[in-house]
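Reopening this ticket.

The earlier resolution said the output was attached, but the attachment link was broken on my side. Pasting everything inline this time so it's all in one place.
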Amino acid sequence: MRHRPRVDLSSLTTLLKRAVLAFLGVPVLVAVALTLVDSYRRRGKKPNPFPTSPAATVQIGDGTVTTYTYGQDLYDDMLAAIKEARQQILFETYIWKGDEVGERFKAALTEAARSGVEVYVIYDSFANIVVSPRFKRFDPRLHVLHFPVYAAGWRFFDLRRYGRDHRKILVVDAKVAFVGGYNVGAPYATEWRDTHVRVTGPGVFDLKRAFADMWNLYRRPRNGTRPLLLETTSDWEPRIRVHRNVPRLWMFPIRAMYIEAIARASKNVWLTTAYFLPDPDFAEALTAAARRGVDVRLLIPAKSNHVVSDWISRGYFSQLLDAGVKVLRYRDAMVHAKTATIDGTWSTVGTANIDRLSLTGNYEINVEIIDPELAGSLEEIFRVDESNCLQLTEDEWEARDIYRRFTEFLLNPLRPLL
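Inline output:
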């Protein structure tokens, strides 16, 4: 009678663990090495000047939308709005540096609170973990919500509780609101190319409601933090829609907004993003549009502030170039904008990058606007940015050396994490 060989389950388990460790551990080590080398190379370097477009205002219904492409111009108008506040200020940001620009905003918000204005502030604690604790001490008249570094509590495996607050919103007196990619800090004022919009009219209410919902979701009643109550509004601007990713409720409409708009494109899709790490369906939407004759252009940084993201994003270039997508790499400065225009009518500006963290992970907010004049303004901004880009050609891409190909291969397992 034959005896079957006994399977040593413990040895098999050990081998499996080692295989998984190697599969993920090697890419992580490569990513750490790339980050350290890139950080060393960047020390003391300043970005070169880059072209910008002046702030431009478009009338939409009973309100306006103003585009900003230079941080200092945006900050000046945000601070002016804060100074003119009479009733309420809602301020939310991802990064709030404790430098001279950050201090200006803190001082303006504090002065408003001292003058009797209700001031509510939300900022992400993890994104500002290196900011001085002194800067994060606020006048007690400000209502401040520190979005926690770790929000899952004992629910370790609840993925809905791990998103970061990546939004950037300012609403003043329910009359004017600002939203877009700009964080608050001196480097963003002059060294980064980003896009923000100012909204007036009925569109402000949805941004106010977005802030209030975030505040009410994470406020701490035990600490006496009171809820933000909103009155209903009878005004409605159908050409302006606000989309919010809310991981806690497992809501991610921004991704669907993009894919639906791209699927309807017949003329052009011009997309700018700081980090391009799409899921397969998003990448397929872009390549399918290009194959049916749509002018698809993707504008990304030649070198972003996250070198690992740059390397991983290269894994999509063959697919894009084969389909006819134009890949444009922004030179000499970090482009951090999150914008798109389609067919001269549809536009979006917001905080969501084209990566997993933004589209299916973090709290994000994008404004979707259906208006030819605004689309025209954003197309002109795209052309200005394009003048500072190098287009990646198929020949150049195919000629890359074995070292680059091997590094791209090693980092591929990290795609789902970013």
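Reporter confirms the inline version is readable. The longest helix spans residues 9-42. Residues 245 and 251 are 5 Å apart (CA to CA).
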